[in-house]
Design a protein that fits this description.
The longest helix has 17 residues, at 214-230. α2 packs across α3 (96-107) and α2 (66-79) crosses α8 (214-230). The strands form 3 sheets. The protein has a 6-stranded parallel sheet, sandwiched between helices. It has 9 helices and 11 strands. Helix content is 34%, strand content 20%. By secondary structure, the chain is an alpha/beta fold. The chain has helices at 59-62, 66-79, 96-107, 119-127, 141-149, 162-172, 207-212, 214-230, 246-255, and strands at 10-12, 28-31, 50-52, 87-90, 111-116, 132-135, 154-159, 173-181, 201-204, 237-242, 262-266.
Length: 267
């Protein structure tokens, strides 16, 4: 202590260090990590964690880029090694990472399925680029996904709640299918034999590992900046809270049953 939480911010550069050449005072930027914490009016960030923010995106959208889009790209492209034409299922597709994954997958030529738990969420999933959306509260939604995927099954599953879905995920994967675990809130029992018949793979994703590989991080950043320039990277903002309501924001996200867009704090 004292400790200021928060990593993803967007705003205008107030000052630059002596060795910083990529940015200047007044530039619009977003960060993928801060040194002094993002829940503040000002923050300090290392130069390699700062990226330009195009005029077409506002600062709220800029603050919603880092974790969602860097996670989605690492999961789908780096770890799953996804290829255009493959079927990808995104669980929890109406949340920040889910929306990012839908937009990314559609732009890269995948057949995109997404799940959500409300009519509003299902509409968001479709608007974000999914070809089909499924309500995970329906008892037969797994069967509906299997039918939509056809006989070969789902090639890639981006899993936001592995402790609930992983066992079912294994049943709908294709031969050589991959489950990428992005979120988990507990334990689950699975039968490892289900990985054998179709040689499927379960892989976890960690942004901390991603950030440690600077070349990998730089490559993802370049891909996402290209998405901003092309227009497909378009963060959807959900609930907004002023800084003095930070405690309420944390309580809401912990107690909430689902997400629709990226929660942001505003000055």
């Amino acid at each position: 202590m004292p400790y200021t939480p928060g990593s993803d911010v967007a705003g205008v550069v107030a000052h630059v260090g002596n060795n910083v050449t990529s940015f200047k005072k007044g530039d619009r930027v977003f960060t993928t990590g801060t040194i002094t914490g993002g829940y503040a009016e000002y923050t300090v960030a290392a130069g390699n964690t700062v990226f330009p923010l195009p005029e077409k995106l506002n600062f709220k959208q800029g603050a919603a880029i880092s974790v969602p889009y860097f996670t989605a790209h690492r999961a789908l492209i780096t770890k799953a090694r996804g290829r255009p034409g493959e079927v990808v299922l995104i669980h929890g597709a109406s949340g920040g990472v889910g929306i990012a994954a839908c937009q990314l997958a559609r732009a890269y030529g995948f057949k995109v399925f997404g799940t959500a738990g409300t009519d509003e969420g299902l509409n968001i999933v479709l608007q974000s680029g999914a070809h089909k959306a499924f309500n995970h509260r329906d008892k037969d939604y797994i069967e509906k996904i299997q039918e939509a995927a056809g006989g070969d099954g789902v090639n890639i599953i981006l899993e936001m709640l592995a402790n609930v879905n992983l066992s079912n995920d294994m049943k709908i994967l294709s031969v050589g299918g991959r489950v990428i675990v992005i979120g988990c809130r507990g334990n689950i029992e699975i039968n490892p034999r289900e990985t054998m018949a179709k040689e499927t793979v379960i892989t976890g994703v960690s942004l901390l590992v991603h950030m440690a590989n600077k070349e990998d991080w730089k490559e993802t950043g370049a891909a996402l900046i290209g998405g901003m320039e092309a227009g497909w990277l378009n963060p959807l903002i959900g609930p907004e809270y002023p800084l003095e309501k930070t405690v309420q924001a944390h309580e809401d996200i912990i107690q909430g049953t689902g997400a629709t867009g990226k929660m942001v704090l505003v000055p």
